Amino acid sequence: MAERPSTPYRPSAAERAERRAFEALLALPKSARKRAAGRPHVVDGGALDPDIATGLKVLGRVGGKELDERTVDDARTALAAESWMFAGEPADVASVEQVTIDGAAHGADGDIPAFLYRPNPSPVTVVGKHADAARTPGTARPCVVYFHGGGWVLGSAQTHDAVARALCADGEVIVLNVDYRRAPEHVFPAAVDDAVAAFRWAHANAERLGIDPERIAVAGDSAGGNLSAVVAQETTRHGGPKPALQMLFVPVTDLTLPRSDSYERFSSGYFLTRANMDWYEATYLTGSPTLGGSSDVDIDALRADPRVSPLRATDLDALVAAGLPPAYVAVAGFDPLRDEGIAYARMLERAGVATTLRVHTDAVHPFINILATDLGRRCMAEAVGAMRTALGVDPA
């Protein structure tokens, strides 16, 4: 039986007023917005975007407790509220359809709810290396299988609806937005199993869905970026179809110890905190809010598992020889996960995988979701451009 799919967030009157105030501030001239943000904040030569600085102030006023200080249900509601606050106006798409992925047929335990987005009709010309793959140009479209962020615990397809819509509308691709199983109800490797199953389902049903099976990408932010990297590795490792592209936004790539320098430098004050990450990790791996809550689990072995920490894959040479998909990796300058995202991109590059690394020095985690701001829209536009090129969608 399918799990119940996520539902849209219903903001309170106070939250609606807060969002209107934030949007009014963003509509001011850039000079006025800079004054509202206060003194420029510079770390490692990067200056924090003034609109993002203002957004962090807004969160400071309305956020209350940190996510890791709440119950899971309360934290899920809080993240949904924050996602709604900064999502901006949703992009127009032709349709959004609720679908059920047959997970059991593709390596997961049961059905997986998801949403399928279709772009508005337009002539689509296939260019580049994929031109021969489209038998009838304009009929079969590329697809992006999207995995939402939220530390494998929070977030949903609905919290990332604006991201899915933007990818669909601007990229002229079909998007499958997946409601994979979350911890603590379903600990590792449930989310991995669902993510792999979702990709395989999209490929197996490509003709029925109007998808070009040779142009299916995986994408995601934070924990979803982690799942995208893992899907790329797992499908390459075990044979069969694999993604045409892995798009990783502020990905988690390494939970082994010791943590990176950026974990310490940006441990608090920039939306994602180290305490958040510790809570996500423990909940995902053990089902407990603290690692000490489950003494029968070998935490170090779990952390080093490449399905948890894809940066630690020991069979990288074999994966590359088997055709590990090209990667687009985008990280934020003010993010605990910055260094491990950069390390993953550089590891792929050194191994011979075609990789684009984009460091948004003025951004915080997770910039791809902050589409109300100029920065969020700019980062999305860059990613969509790279995606269109990689998937052979005519830029015209």
Q: What does this molecule look like?
A:
This protein has 396 residues and is of the alpha/beta class. It has two domains: 11-62, no CATH class; 71-120 and 139-389, Alpha/Beta hydrolase fold, catalytic domain (Rossmann fold), CATH 3.40.50. It is 40% helix and 16% strand. It has 14 helices and ten strands. The strands form two sheets. Strands 3-4-6-5-7-8-9-10 form an eight-stranded mixed sheet, with helices on both faces. A two-stranded antiparallel ribbon has the order 1-2. Helix 2 (30-37) crosses helix 3, helix 5 packs across helix 14 and helix 6 packs across helix 8 (223-238). The chain is globular and about 55 Å long. InterPro entries: AB_hydrolase_3, AB_hydrolase_fold, GDXG_lipolytic_enzyme, Lipase_GDXG_HIS_AS.
